Here is the input.
Amino acid sequence: MHYPSLFHLPFHPRAQSSYPAAKGNSTLLCNSITLSALIIKQKRNKKKTMPINYVLLVSRQGKTRLAKWFTTMGPKEKSKIVKDVTQLVLSRRTKMCNFLEYKDTKVIYRRYASLFFITGVDPQDNELITLEIIHRYVEVLDRYFGNVCELDLIFNFHRAYFILDELLIAGEMQESSKVKPLQVIHEQDAAEVEEANEEKNK
Here is the structure.
């Protein structure tokens, strides 16, 4: 099976025009406004930034490649959310808006090649900031793996979790830089290699 790069299928431009806040933009956000600037602006406006409830990576076949939860839930409740949200997202067409409601939360997703990056947030959260967080995560993954594809995440899922933990803590954005998370992960890789070499030399 061929696993294309996640960046071979960008965010569908027509999906932007279906939501009023993104109407008329040729890109998801203005190039002059960065992710960190948006977060700072939101804090200056004294808007309470709510954490992301969960992050899911789901394939087109409905298989969950990653599931990160930032709220306390039971196993049955988590399984139901994964099942329901996956069905909702996979059933939507490319021209449809990338925001939808699920119970008392808002589901925001973005498709890259064969993977859907799905987040669950509170209804009052900013959708565009959440989409930018998703894109930042994919950018860091792409820099780490080099032309990342679904197969990289299947065989290196622990690395995907490590990178996500460097970007998000308790569901809130802690690091908007693309470089700093990679530095930490590379240091972890070097420590693992050094530890493995010491074990061999014993």
